[in-house]
From TrEMBL:
One GO cellular component term noted in the UniProt record for this chain: cytoplasm
Domain called Peptidase M20 dimerisation: residue spans: 207-298
UniProt keyword Hydrolase present: yes
Gene3D superfamilies: 3.30.70.360, Zn peptidases
Protein name: Aminobenzoyl-glutamate utilization protein B
One function term, GO molecular function aspect: para-aminobenzoyl-glutamate hydrolase activity
Keywords tagged on the record: Hydrolase, Signal
Organism from which the protein derives: Parasphingorhabdus marina DSM 22363
Length: 476
């Protein structure tokens, strides 16, 4: 990469004097290169821990140790969440927050190999790449801290340790607690099978565990005395499945039966089903949700059971900020894509050969995808952050092209060098984006204006999970 000198005006606190400091862009990027082994070690350690939402004690502590060693002050256990934290460095100037996630997905397991190979006794894995998310965001925060210190630029960099993104809405509680109220801009990223800074929004969503209760009895000897809680769950699912034909096109509804009994000859007196409802607009989620609740009541009435439910999480859609997204796209293009080693190429070819008509071709990891504004069908609690402060994100090819999130293939790549290379690229892109925001007042003004316009003059924040406390045991 060519050597580009950044000559940065450093404002004295009095506002009467200016000093000049120079720091090459290449030197900042080289500092990230120089910490690659640290990045890979952090990513691999968290990958091996595979701690699920709100149980990420060791992962959270590792990240805090790394940041503390680099001069960050740490606030632990924020927003009533033991594994959430805020790390900060700097004074005065704009406040930029970088988000980090580190929770694993339950119910999926895979070694870092190119063939299906579960690890015995392991019940979770980083199939969404949050181990990479954590490592890359921490390294970006460390690089920005180095830049702030060496250039004496007024500004604060914050690393937000945000647990339980997968169905726990950790960031929502942090937003609700006011932890983003003084943040000027937020930056995030995500593991993916491509390199892109497209302005991709997400679906709003809400989830709940619906719990049916009945009367148990011998299924053959006294069925008339029983009322099956599982019948309630199945009747409920049937009603919702019929409802799918009569909801807006971009809606999504999915569920798993988390408890349905233990023996066929015992009519279960308890059964539980875990539901997600998604829609591009929070009001759309609310409208569908009310129908789902009515279906639950009807199923209980029809089966002679009772039902109650606990809302587990809820996320607003991602509010894109085009001025910031276009800036991030330019930084990603400046950096370029990813080149595989011979060993990585062999791994990727084995993985890719197992895909049926993959969206992205092998080799596209070296490219940057076209910029556009699009709807993504996933959901994230970054959405609530994006309504609190202007927010920008980037995705990098941490997985073999064609890989879907939440798959054994994504888990495999998240635990080896393909994942680590993509993570380093994300750290560099976020670092350059943060520097641009610190040094470009016109961009800051344009991004803030776009944010204010998108929210509207009468905007009032509303959480889709209500006033409940964090569900710290939702994965137990």
């Amino acid at each position: 990469m060519k050597k580009l000198a950044l000559v940065l005006p450093i404002l004295a606190l009095s506002g009467t004097a200016q000093a000049q400091a120079t720091l090459s862009e290449s030197d900042i990027l080289a500092s990230i290169d120089g910490r690659y082994e640290q990045l890979a070690d952090t990513a691999r350690t968290i990958w091996e821990l595979a701690e699920v939402g709100y149980q990420e004690e060791k992962s959270s502590e590792l990240l805090k140790q790394n940041l503390r060693a680099q001069g960050f002050s740490i606030k632990s256990g924020v927003a009533g969440i033991p594994t959430a934290f805020v790390a900060e460095y700097g004074t005065d100037g704009p406040v930029i927050g970088i988000l980090a996630e580190y929770d694993a997905l339950p119910g999926i397991n895979q070694d870092a190999l190119a063939v299906r190979s579960p690890i015995a006794g392991k019940n979770a894995s980083h199939a969404c790449g949050h181990n990479l998310f954590a490592a890359g965001s921490v390294e970006a925060a460390i690089a920005v801290r180095k830049w702030l210190k060496e250039t004496r630029t007024p500004g604060r960099i914050r690393l937000y340790g945000t647990p339980a993104e997968e169905g726990g809405s950790g960031k929502v509680y942090m937003v609700r607690e006011g932890l983003f109220d003084d943040v000027d801009f937020a930056i995030h990223w995500h593991a993916a099978d491509e390199n892109s800074a497209a302005a991709r929004t997400t679906l709003a969503n809400r989830s709940a565990k619906f719990r049916f209760r009945g009367v148990s009895a011998h299924a053959a000897g006294a069925p008339d005395r029983a009322r099956s809680a599982l019948d309630g769950v199945e009747a409920f699912n049937m009603m919702v499945n019929m409802m799918r034909e009569h909801v807006p096109q971009d809606s999504r509804i999915h569920y798993v039966i988390t408890e349905g009994g233990t023996a066929p000859n015992v009519v279960p007196d308890f059964a539980e089903v875990f539901y997600y409802v998604r829609h591009p607009d929070p009001d759309g989620v609310e409208a569908i949700w009310s129908r789902v609740e009515e279906a639950a009541r009807g199923a209980a009435l029809g089966t002679g059971t009772t039902v109650d439910w606990e809302v587990i999480h809820g996320n607003n859609p991602l509010l894109v900020n085009e001025p910031m997204a276009r800036m991030m796209d330019s930084k990603l293009r400046q950096l370029g894509g990813i080149t595989y080693s011979a060993e990585e190429q062999k791994f990727a070819e084995t993985i890719h050969a197992g895909f049926d008509k993959p969206k992205n071709a092998l080799g596209s990891q070296a490219m940057i995808q076209p910029y556009d504004v699009t709807l993504g069908y996933g959901s994230t609690d970054v959405g609530d952050v994006s309504f609190a402060t202007p927010t920008v994100g980037v995705r990098t090819a941490t997985w073999v092209p064609g890989t879907s999130a939440h798959s054994w293939q994504s888990s495999a790549a998240s635990g080896m060098s393909i994942g680590f290379k993509g993570t380093e690229l994300a750290a560099k892109a976020m670092t350059l984006a943060a520097i641009e925001l610190y040094t470009n007042p016109d961009l800051r003004s344009e991004a803030r204006a776009a944010f204010d316009e998108a929210r509207g003059p009468d905007y009032v924040y509303k959480s889709l999970l209500g006033d409940r406390k964090p569900p710290l045991n939702y994965r137990k």
